[in-house]
Structure formats: C-alpha cells, structure tokens
Amino acid sequence: MPIIKRPNSSNAPRDDRDQDGPNRYRQPAAKSSAGPSIAVRIVLWFVGLFAVAAIIGALIIGYALVVMGPNLPSLDAITDYQPKVPLRIYTADHVLIGEFGEERRRIARFDEIPDQMKKAVLAIEDYRFYEHGGVDFIGIARAGLSDIMHGGASQGASTITMQVARNFFLSSEKTYTRKIYEMLLAYKIERALTKDQILELYMNQIYLGERSYGFASAARVYFGKDLKDLTLAECAMLAGLPKAPSAYNPVVNPKRAKIRQQYILKRMLDLNFITQAQFDQASAEEIHARVSGTEYSVHAEYVAEMVRQMMYAQYRDETYTRGFSVTTTIDSADQEAAYDAVRKGVMDYERRHGYRGPEGFVNLPTNQDDRDEAIDDALADHPDNGDLIAGVVTSVNAKQVVVTFVNADPATITGDGLRFVAAGLRSNASAAVRIKPGSIVRVVQDAKGNWSITQLPQVEGALVSLVPQDGAIRSLVGGFDYNKNKFNHVTQAWRQPGSSFKPFIYSASLAKGLGPATIINDAPLYFPPTSPGGQAWEPKDDDQPDGPMSMRTALQKSKNLVSIRILSYIGTKYAQDYVTQNFGFDVDKTPPYLPLALGAGLVTPLQLAGGYSVFANGGSRINPYLIGEVADAHGTVISRANPLIAGSNAPQTLEPRNAYVMNSLLHSVATGGTGAGTNVLKRNDLQGKTGTTNDAKDGWFAGYQHQLVAIAWMGYDQPKSLGSREFGAQLALPIWVEYMQRALAKIPQQQMVMPDGLTTVDGELFFADKTPGNGFVASIGVDSANPLEGASDAVGGVGPGGMTPPSVPPPSVNPAERQEIMDLFKGH
Fold first, then answer.
1. Beta strands 104-105 and 212-213: pairing type?
2. What is the tens place of the pLDDT at every residue in 266-281?
3. C-alpha span between 191 and 3 (Å, rounded)
4. Shortest CA distance to 601 belongs to which of 495, 716, 709?
5. Rounded distance, CA 680 to CA 431, Å?
6. What is the pTM of this model?
7. Helices 656-672 & 605-616 angle (0-180, nearest 10)
8. What is the reported pLDDT for 812?
9. Residues with catalytic annotation?
10. pLDDT at 243
11. H-type helices in 641-774, by residue range?
12. Could you tell me the pLDDT band of residue 610, with boundaries at 50, 70 and 90?
C-alpha cells in the first residue's frame, strides 16, 4: 500500500525517516494516519478471503460442470424405479403369511403414506425439503457453524434429495469428491422429478434395519402393521431409524429408540407439524415392537415354505427379487384354528405322559449383574417357542417357584401351576427331573395371566384340511413348531395309516358284492408255515374276537380280523389296483399283501386327505392344490389355478352309490364307533375313521363334512410307541375335533342326497343290482362247508376257524419284513 504524504504540522504524524535526507529523522507523532485502521484491515482480509474462496469455488464448479458433469449416471434407476421386491405370500383372504428375499420391501405410493409419517421424516431429516432446490445452503451453513462451535463434525447437511442420490448411485465413503457428485446429482434429480416423487423414492428405498427397506416394510417388521395403521408415536420411532438403524432399533435397543423418538416428536412440535395435545399423547404412548419371527399374525410357516419351494422351482433366483405376490387357498381363520388345535393336542399328550425334567442348568452368581448376564447367556440357547417361554429358576421350594426371563419381570408360580412338575419338587426327586435354582424350564401363561411350568414336546403332530369339491387346501400345519422342526409332516412324512386305511378296502369290497349287511366272522386266523422251518402267522386283534357280525359293525369297531377276511375275499391285487386308481395312492407304497387291510402301506396326511375327498364329494378324484394365483410386482395376474372340480372336470373314479354307502358306514363310525368323540360337535353330518398302527407308533383321525375334509396325525419323527393306552381316538381325534369346532362353526349341516342305484332292505343300504339272493354276498367265513368263498387272485382263503395256505406263492419277503408284517396284524 502506498505511503500517503501530508504537510508538516504540529499534529502531523511523524515518519521514522527524515524527509530532507537519508540521515535525518523527524520526531514521531502520537498517532499515524498513514495506514488503514484495524477494522478496515479485517474487512479487507475477509473480502480478500471471500474473493479467493469465490475464485476457488468457481474453479470447483467449473471443474464439476466440465469434468464431473458428463460422468453423472443416468437417472433411469429412479425415473423407472424397479426395486428388488421380495416374494410375498398371502392367504385367500389376503393376510400376509410369508416373505422371502434379501431385502424386505413393500412399495407404498405417495398418497398411501400417512401424512404424520411424512412429517416425522421431514422434521428429523430435512424440514426445508420443499423450500430448497436439492442442496440446502442454509442447512450447510448451519451445520458448518455447529461443527466449528463443537470443534468437529457434529451435524450433517445432506438433504433428502442428496440422500436419494447417495442411496441409488453413490458409495457411503466420506470424501469431498463424493459430496460434489452428490450435490450435482441432487440438482439433476430435482430437475427430473417432483418433490413428492423424490420423497416417495426416499421413503421406499431407505434401509431401516432387520433387512427392511422403506417405511412400509419397517412398519410390518417392527410393529406388524400396515403403514396406514401406525400411530404418531410409531411413526416418530420409525423416523429415527435412517440415522443409525442398529442403534435406534426398537427391538434391540428400545431405550435408545425411545430417546430418539422423543427428540423427533419435539422437533415436530417446534415446527408446528403437530399440536401440543398430539405431542403429549404420543410421548406417553407405550410402544410394543414385535420380536423377530412374530411379524405375521397367522402361523403358516409350513405353507409359506411350500410356496417358496414351488415358486423357486419355476423362477429360480428371480423368485426373491421380482415382487411376486402369491395368493394361496389357505383361510386365515382355519389356519389359526389348525395351529391352535395341533399345539393343544400335542401339549395334552405331554401332560398325560409326565415331566421329563428341566431343559438345562446354569450356575447363578451371587452378584446381581453377573447373575443377569448368566441368565441372558443361558436363555440365548433356549429361544421361546410360541407361547412356551424359556426361563431360569431363581428360587424354589415345594409350594413356590420363581422363574426369571430376559427383559421381563419374574413369574411366581404356585398351586395348579406346579402340578405338572410336582415330581421334580419333591425332596427325593431324581437328578433328571429335580427343579432347583439355575434350572432352565418352560412356562406358559393362561388367559387369566396365571403361569404354569410345562415342557417342550418331543412328539409331533400335524393337520391338513381341504375342500373336497376342488382340492383347495384350507389349512396346513406340518408340525408342532416350524422353528423347532422344519420337517413338514403333512407332505414329507410317509407313515403307515393303520385302520384309517380300512375304508378304502371296504369301498373296494362293495364293488365285489359285499355290503353293510354282509356278515363276516370275527374269528381267529392262522397262517401255517409256507415252507419247512417257516414261521406260522397268527394275527391278533386288540380285543377278543366277537364272532359273526355285520360289515357296518365291523368298521364301527375297527375289527382287524374282519378286514383281513374282506381283503382276502376280494383279492390283494384287485384291492391294490382299486385304491391306487380310484383314490390316488402310490402303487409302490401300497403292497398287495393281506396286511394292507390294516394299513400296512405308506401315505402322507395330504395324500390321505385327497383319498377321503373322493368319499366326501360323491366319487370324484381331485388334486389338492395350494396356490390360487400369482401376480407380479404391478399386480398383474400371471398365473391362476385351474383345479379339477367334482361334478365338472374331475374324473368320476368311484360310483356315487359307492361313495354314499361309504359315507353311511363312516357316519356310523363317527357317531357310534371308535370315532364317537365327534359327537361333542353336535352335528349329524360328520364321517370319519380312527387309525392306530402297531404299538401305537402313529395315531390318526380322518374325517369330513361334505364341504371340508381334515386329517389329523400324531407320532414321533423316529417312530416309537406313543403308549400302550394310546389310540387314534385319544391322540388325533381331539385335534380334529378342536379344529372342526371352529372351522365348521358357520357351515350349516348338510346331508348327502341318495343317488340312483341304491335301495334299502330292513333299513340297510344295498346296491340295487346286488340284493339278498341277487348277487349280494351274504357272509364270509361263517359257512364251514364253503371255507374259501374267495376270489381267484386272493392270497390266502378264509374259513370259519382259520385260513388255508395260499393257493399261489405270496411275494417273497426277508425275515425282517416278515416280522414287520406279522406285527402289523396286532395293530388297530
């Protein structure tokens, strides 16, 4: 800066140098006015700094426009938004029961997002969203000032548009280059889309923890609700997730999630997005986040997995990204009734067979913090199983047990709640069943809030029901708990059906001239050895032989010896062809041996349901099916079921009159025979048959009403006896009744109309062309003068007191198979 020269005066400032010569100096003045003031210098410094910043900024902008601008990606990813949407599976009444895909995502259009959800997000993420053009310079300045005041980066300045740019196109690395790209993309997005479209993209794309993307998905994952049903308090809690989904997860970190929710609610109040009354109500609301695995209101895990497998077989990896929506034939109310029925039936069995002892044991430290940590660690290996909650015993005596849980108040159990485990509370209890401090036990709470100690079952149960007219599956429960055992017993378990298979043999006999009035001798049977050194067969029944009886009575009482005589009469090969062709059983799993009369073959519960449907619908063979329709991500139906329908396009494999007579026989079983437990339903339109295999390894009940067939089963995965006093009537029938009580509640009683070709004589049904004295087989095994009375292809004949050697050699079997067949004769 040049020196300003002024004339000498008494008040003139003194220069250090003499103006008259190099060696002469003037006296200094008190104050010099040759240079600018401090204030002016500061202003000039800032002006200079601003100028330099402007030049640098201009260079950066120029560089960004010239060099970085052309490298910006196309906006096709957001203008033609095609997110990875998972496979979703619904019941027929559109209740979500399953979701499969790496990303849980539910697309919500802008108008479908509640206003309070939008405001909660704007309040915490970008309250000036509708005012800026993509980059909020006021927000940047505010964040910069805050960073300076706090001595470091404490606030971000990314707008929602910038976050959309980052989420769709950029990495998460924190560099200046990425930030510039982010800002340029934000401007480009703002030119291409409206503000509402940008906000919609953000609220559908943002990651919110638990594999959920977008607020619609998070609403389902965390609260089990649709987005439209969220409260203000829940909206504010979800709005806190984008900053740090793991830190503010209401399931994992409920306390931190609550603190952030309160902060967001206060922001909404300060911004006049909500009123004071709304703030007070939302702040006081208690939030109940759903734990992992409980985001579906209906238990249909086995159904969902079946659908997933079927979809994957057709679409492979696209199954999980194309947004397919599968509507099943399942009825949500029926499915929940089936789930409850199986759980109750299995737990009732457990109670009948006693307490096996605690699941495990943990040493309890004396220090409370250490004790809590030990309990948490121990229970991590014993997850809850539905309503069966795992806990650790912390105090115990003969009359009271205190059980502690994870993140819940302890339960004090007394009285009836200890009845099941009384043996484990005695002073002389064995080590295996003794309950002591540190024991890991299962407890359950009833509707009145009372706790009781129980145990996880080892036995399995299953139930499937379907509409017999077209095969639509209404409910399917493949086991006690999917998370405990994913093996689907409805479709994968090939088990011996026991006496539940007898009706198919009886049906075959009707075509051979037998009828409900045929008298058959319930007398001992004897198979002499077929070779030197061979073993004689002498099948037994569960009760004493009753002598001659009608075929109707024999089925009511499930008489084994009568069933063997019937099969011997009609022929084993004929019976095999009949049941496989007319009812759909597998040939290779339906052996042409006499034990077939007792259910020696193998079936699945679903296959058995299809077989009984033929009786229920009047003789048509249908195919059970589960998927009603499949739609793509846009809601367009791309496939729809085309089932076989009885009376329309389903093959008529059984004469209607045969089906009608079998309905009559099975109605007798369900009302006055081994299935009389159905009488508690107080209906006169039920048919069914119990089934118990040898040594009670399987318990069955197969029954139906004209509009619904249901099969219930119980057994161990590794077959073993369920108990010497356990039969299908005690094992499976209660499950069936529990289910049908709810499933048939709104279905009126209905009697089948008698078809042509039938007549009655003395109140009993006969085929019109097979009446007494006219082709009707009056008796089997009661005429000593004609002991065979058998068909030419029968393996073995029948007689009043025994069985003749086979007229043709039976199929060869090894000793183990022979023993198994002999054992089957003892089953009921």
1. parallel
2. 999 999 999 999 999 9
3. 55
4. 495
5. 42
6. 0.79
7. 110
8. 45
9. 125, 499
10. 87
11. 656-672, 728-731, 733-743
12. very high
Nearest to 659 by CA among 692, 682, 684, 687: 687
User: Over 50: is that where the pLDDT of 31 sits?
Assistant: no
For the stretch 392-395, contacts whose Cβ atoms lie closer than 8 Å and that sit 24 or more positions apart, written own/partner, are 392/362, 392/364, 392/438, 392/439, 392/440, 392/441, 393/358, 393/435, 393/436, 393/437, 393/438, 393/439, 393/440, 393/441, 394/364, 394/437, 395/437
Closest by CA position to 612, among listed 627, 598, 624, 601: 624
- Which residues, in sequence order, are CB contacts of 154 under 8 Å at separation 6+? 146, 147
Q: Kindly list the distances between the CA atom of residue 472 and the CA atoms of 642, 710, 713, in Å, as whole numbers in the listed order.
A: 11, 12, 20
Structure tokens at 540: 């037994």
Alpha-carbon gap, residue 695 to 542, rounded angstroms = 11
- Quote the tokens at residue 434: 């003794």
Q: Report how far residue 236's alpha carbon sits from residue 764's, in angstroms, rounded to the nearest whole number.
A: 72
Q: Is the dihedral of CA 230, 232, 234, 236 positive or negative?
A: positive
Tokens of 506: 């009886």
CA gap 163, 169 in Å, rounded: 10
Instruction: Indicate the SS3 state at residue 621.
Output: coil
Alpha-carbon distance values, 554 to 271, 433, 479 (Å): 81, 44, 33
Q: What single letter denotes the amino acid at residue 38?
A: I
Structure-token pair, residue 474: 């209404």
Residue found under tokens 């924190």: 174
pLDDT in tens, 108-162: 999 999 999 999 999 999 999 999 988 877 766 665 565 555 554 444 568 998 8
Going by the DSSP 8-state scheme, the letter that residue 761 receives in this structure is E
Mean pLDDT of the chain: 85
* pLDDT tens by residue, 687-731: 999 999 988 999 999 999 999 999 999 999 999 999 989 999 999
User: Residue 188: its pLDDT value, please?
Assistant: 86
Written as one letter, the residue type at 373 is E
According to DSSP, the residues that pair with 521 across neighbouring strands are 548
pLDDT value, residue 254: 86
Residues 704, 737: contact at Cβ < 8 Å? Answer: no
Model pLDDT, residue 295: 63
